[in-house]
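Write out this protein's structure.
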Amino acid sequence: MPDILAPDNVGLVTAQTHKFTTPLALDCGRSLPSYELIYETYGTLNEHHSNAILICHALSSDHHAAGYYSMQDKKPGWWDTCIGPGKPIDTNRFFVVSLNNLGGCKGSTGPKSINPDTNKPYGPDFPIVTVRDWVKSQARLADVLGISQWAAVIGGSLGGMQALQWAIDYPKHLRHCVVIAAAPKLTAQNIAFNEVARQAILSDPDFHTGHYYQQNTVPRRGLMLARMLGHITYLSDDAMRKKFGRELREGKINFGFEVEFQVESYLRYQGTSFVEHFDANTYLLMTKALDYFDPASEHNNNLSAALAKVAAKFLVISFTSDWRFSPSRSREIVKGLLHNKKNVSYAEIKAQEGHDAFLMPIPHYLRIFKNYMQQIEDEE
């Protein structure tokens, strides 16, 4: 059983939900007449409401970033490595807010939610949302919580893109922006990976053009394949070699197409377990949000121009083995900020874990992260 009572753990947590009744206009031209956002908080908001941290999640994550829901939970929240007493995001010092994005499947309004116009699940009729839409909804949640300015907005991967969008769209509403293992836009190769994943889902006979809820089925095979493909891109070749090598499950070749190599078994397990807790329509939406993110596109593809009005101080972190969001992509952000004479710190962490490194307890990474967060504490 996990040590829920460990001094560096936030312990048992409870999610909260807020319903918004003011329509939200979206980039796609549609609007949501009302919607709900589910979120968790850790730590205590100070008297001046100046110690609040917003955590933006990556593609398949959610609002449960730290702690446990019950004493029976086997695993804590997805970023428990970094959130808790004495950890980089110290809940003895900060009030931390983590939410599930619109279009999600863990409690915020999304494809599984009931469409008030039809009294059936939205399914594929849920509007396509963008990173900017998410940031706009997050800003409304900040208003509900009485937070006029975040001490920092922090995210890894797709979460880092949201943090960057926050700095662009609401420059006066955050003092620091922490962008980890992210990019200013996807490469063509990344978009290609996302498209193959989407086609795996769309071509599943059980997808039913996205209305599989009414058919009491799930496009399991398509979603499993999408997850398997994605997981390969999150790991580096070194990480996979170190973890699996070419080990055979039974110690011999069986000359067939069943699982023989340990890496095959691992990927099938990841894909199968993912199907049990994630929604296929949400996966389609999240990957599209990734594809569409490109703040420079509104500035003649000039990233420096897109970053001209940011006011936050930045910490940008990349990892040497991350080939999906390589260090060169993080350096593009740094270069754009420096061109505008903005305050930016950059760290390139030597790590073998690939894109997933931002979730791992890598000592050098955690030290740099913690030192930067302590600087934010000292400003209070």
